[in-house]
Specification:
Strand content: 5-15%
Distance between the termini: 62 Å
Number of strands: 8
Strand order of the largest sheet: 3-2-1-4-5-6-7-8
Shape: elongated
Length: about 250
């Protein structure tokens, strides 16, 4: 059985806690968080702490905290014997250099406050300085997910950039779509089947193959009609920028 200490009380920490709690192969020794009220999710007599004065002994320590806090917190773990990891996509292994055994345990997923999700299909990216530590992180990842991969810090940073495009930027497009619907008194839920099918197509097609729409078709009339409907200057600029990018990618000369 692998023993872990979770540091943090945010979305990632709570999801990891819930997932490890269900595993017969993982023992949560302690959860550390600054605010005692935020530790209310911890059950079953698992030890909690609001300081780093009495850190429990564990095989792996998981710093599920903000990127800015990692360098500030890691020095509290410089004397522990276990692997000290963080869960950030954008922060290198070097940020943990004060730890004796630094590592990365990065679940590639978006986590939302109040929503607990299943880890089965979530890729978990791991990194460590030696093979034994890497194997232990892989073993821990396998208790949660069917997809555990070794990725170094530079690859992980690049993957995080790609994730911003496919998740954060895409969600902002949903926000604009919702605003346009609201402005014209249309139910945004009418777009839900389209959103789901757009994502589902990527099970069998590449994103390039899955592209549809007036910009790809070179339908200049529809593009101009859409711009007449969009009144917000910022939304018009985005529509034009993205349409031109799609036209360029698919070789349309209009």
């Amino acid at each position: 059985m692998i023993s872990v200490v979770i540091v943090g009380t945010g979305n990632v920490a709570q999801n990891l806690y819930q997932a490890f709690e269900k595993s017969d192969d993982v023992s949560i020794k302690q959860v550390i968080g600054r605010n005692p009220e935020h530790l209310a999710f911890v059950k079953n007599n698992i030890a909690v702490s609001t300081t780093f004065n009495n850190i429990a002994t564990a095989d792996i320590y998981i710093l599920a905290i903000s990127d800015d806090a990692i360098k500030l917190v890691v020095d509290n773990f410089k004397d522990v014997a276990g692997i000290v990891t963080h869960t950030s996509g954008a922060t290198s292994l070097e940020a943990l250099k004060s730890a004796k055994r630094p590592g990365i345990f990065y679940p590639l997923q978006t986590f939302t406050k109040g929503k607990i999700i299943a880890f089965d299909e979530i890729p978990i990216c791991v990194e460590a300085r030696n093979e034994n530590d890497l194997n232990l992180l892989i073993q821990l990842g396998n208790t949660l997910s069917n997809k555990v991969v070794e990725i170094d810090s530079e690859q992980r940073k690049t993957l995080h950039v790609a994730a911003v495009f496919v998740n954060n930027f895409t969600n902002y497009m949903y926000t604009i779509g919702s605003e346009i619907c609201e402005e014209h008194k249309i139910d945004f839920n009418l777009l839900q089947p389209l959103i789901k099918e757009t994502a589902a197509k990527l099970d069998t097609l590449t994103p390039l193959q899955a592209q549809t729409g007036p910009a790809k078709r070179g339908d200049q009339k529809t593009l101009h009609n859409h711009l007449q409907i969009i009144k917000d200057k910022h939304q018009r600029e985005l529509y034009t920028l993205l349409s031109n990018a799609i036209k360029e990618k698919h070789g349309k000369e209009l």
